[in-house]
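[job 4471] stage=fold_predict status=RUNNING
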Amino acid sequence: MKPKPDRVGPSQESVWDYPRPPRLEAVQKRIQIIFNGVTIADTHRAWRVLETSHPPVYYIPQKDICHACLSPGESRSWCEWKGQSRYYTVTVGAKQVANAGWSYPEPTPPFAAIKNHVAFYAGPMDACLVDGERARPQPGQFYGGWITFDIVGPFKGEPGSMRW
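[job 4471] inference complete, writing structure tokens
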């Protein structure tokens, strides 16, 4: 059963207005990721994927990510919309998180723009920033959306949301 969407305030958008199948949208905002005290990504050229009930997932061009901080992982997953993914381990100094980021090396045609881009889970990072605002991670172990003040839910991944 679809939950009742939260009230949308000025300058906010509801994840319940996002489409299914998801939509890809260019982002002009500054996106930054900090891990172990180091800025590992900083861009104004990100893309976001918008899907019903999910906060946006931000994809950052590999050119704007610290290459020395990323190493390919063994994990893979399949998305019915974007195709086969590969995961990355993030390492800065002695701190390391496996499967902290993912990409689609050969995305499906509607998502071709995110080829050579990487998305990151907000939870294991020191901070994921959208125009300077610290994003909260989407609830649940599997989901990679970032929640900012301008995005309202309820969100997939919250308790009781399994059948949405």
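[job 4471] summary: The chain has no helices and 15 strands.
[job 4471] exit 0
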